[in-house]
Amino acid sequence: MLNRYPLWKYLLILLVLVVGLIYALPNLFPEDPAVQISSDRGEFTLDERRLDRLEDSLDEAGIATQAIERQPQSVLIRLRHADDQIRARDLLGDSLGEDYVVALNQAESTPAWLESLAASPMTLGLDLRGGVHFLLEVDMEAAITQRLESDASAMRNLLRDERLRYRNTELGERSISMDFMNAEDRDQARQLIAPEYPDFDYSNVEKTRGAGLEMTLTDTAVNEIQDYAVNQNLTTLRNRVNELGVSEPLVQRQGPNRIVVELPGVQDTAAAKRIIGATANLEFRLEARPDTPESETETFPFRDNEARTATLMRDVIITGDRVSNANRSFDENGRPQVNISLDGTGGTLMNRATRTNIGRNMAVLFIEHNSRERTVMKDGEPTTVRTQDTERGIISLATIQSALGNSFRITGLESPTEAADLALLLRSGSLAAPMYFAQERTIGPSLGAKNVERGILSVQVGLLLVVLFMLVRYRVFGVFANLALGFNLTLLVAVMSMLGATLTLPGIAGIVLTLGMAVDANVLIFERIREELRNGLSVQQAIHAGYERAFSSIVDANITTLLVALILFSIGTGPVKGFAVTLSLGILTSLFTALMVTRAMVNLCYGGKPVKKLWI
């Protein structure tokens, strides 16, 4: 019989609509304005008495709170009014001092029964929810210095393996200088080193005592090192951001030596800077023997006790870039540790160094590059001057009991948080060169509130105009199309929420476009029904022909648009991707509602019934 659906199709449509409604519901519960208190040092401690005093201070200032929630490494204070966020942040920041970070935040208010079904609202992008914006600058000079240090260490190992004696090694801005006992030793060293290191220009240096060899990096090599440093840091930052679990982050290169990082929804700047801006790395070195020449050793303090020091060999066994995996755990005494797994080359180098030095101490050296800003008066005006310094400290100094391979552990860490951060940094990869914060900006959630309101208003206006047009043009069938349009919007929001897609301003534009395009299919169907009625077909035959004959045109038109959206998603970045996601999902939900939902409603009203006239 024409225009009748089997029962299973009606049940399928009903099931899809119910599931869509449930997973779209969390978006009707707006996030609560909140302030988050966390520690600037990673470990968080805030006793109940002090927390009560902070709550009393907020009450005295006329700032109404909804709830105070303790989290593993922070405290979240929910506020009743968004206008109080900045006042609350400033008040709490003054009360707590510099040891704590008070940041604006948004706290989810999804009911527990929806959370039990894994239903959550859509993630909002930086332009809607706020977040942090960092502009980091790569230290090009440090990149060259690190390359020179690495090459100098490898050259010394090469000379020792060939039993060629050298007296001193010095590093310049772009050069390595080595002294030898005589010209014959220098010439042999040059013949040995030059083929292995073609990125240097070599020149002999005459000295009153002995002979010298100077190796200078070529301009091409310098450019390659600097370009590699930026690209490697870019990759490492992306890995770190992925470890943080931030939705739709932006990490991209800007100019020759800068990288932009934008983290939507992140308001805890201390945690973000601790991970994103950390330039930590590890070096594994042997402890120097008492008879080792001073030119081949360096002395470093311990991180947990600067009064205690140890003298280490200049030569590095491996660095953190040989780490393939790292995880935090606890030893048999409950102290934090990091389990390390090395790649093939790192495991080979570690085994070679330790199997011939059993009973000797090996140190894990923690290296961190810091940038500090201070204001000085220059020409009568305050000027910000940035200085860089590198801190090196020994994490652990342990005796080699047996030859090590690809897996071992690092102990001597101060806290579980430090162990977790170190594991994350090693797991995501080390930086090829230090980076410094050239610009830091926090975008509060209140700035995105107006964007959300305007975006919702644009959707409402677009929806209203489409609804009015369909009602005036197609009457009863216009009602069917409008109901399907509402279902379409519900399904689109539900699918985006279920997939964890991020909604941005361009994404809202994609939703508005989807609403306009969604009725195109119904227009084609309804106009075809009108045409079939004019050609003399009965009502039931006209309805059936309208849906069947318009089907191929609708699918063809939407597939071409879907292909364009997929191309935009594959080659676009940031806002373009947000637009492509909503457009792609909107096309799929539009096909479902236009072809199945409206057909189901028409069948329920007219299917199998004697109808003489259609209000279309």
Walkthrough of the structure:
The structure is a single chain. The protein is of the alpha+beta class and 616 residues long. It folds into 4 domains: 7-26 and 444-606, Up-down Bundle (Multidrug efflux transporter AcrB transmembrane fold), CATH 1.20.1640.10; 32-107, ACT domain (Alpha-Beta Plaits, 2-Layer Sandwich); 131-277, 2-Layer Sandwich (Gyrase A, domain 2), CATH 3.30.1360; 281-413 and 435-442, Gyrase A, domain 2 (2-Layer Sandwich), CATH 3.30.1360. It is built from 15 helices and 23 strands. The chain has helices at residues 7-24, 48-60, 85-96, 112-115, 126-129, 140-161, 183-193, 219-244, 269-276, 344-355, 416-428, 445-499, 505-534, 539-571, 575-606; strands at 32-39, 65-71, 74-79, 100-107, 123-124, 131-138, 168-171, 175-180, 200-206, 211-217, 250-254, 258-264, 281-286, 297-301, 309-313, 318-319, 323-330, 336-342, 361-378, 381-399, 407-410, 435-443, 502-503. It has a 4-stranded antiparallel β-sheet, with helices on both faces. A 4-stranded antiparallel β-sheet has the order 11-12-6-22. A hairpin with a 3-residue loop joins strand 7 and strand 8. Helix 12 (445-499) crosses helix 15 (575-606) and helix 13 (505-534) runs parallel beside helix 15 (575-606). The protein starts with 6 loop residues before the first helix and ends in a 10-residue tail after the last helix. The model has no long low-confidence stretch (mean pLDDT 82). Residues 2-104 form the SecD export protein N-terminal TM domain. Residues 230-287 form the Protein translocase subunit SecDF P1 domain.
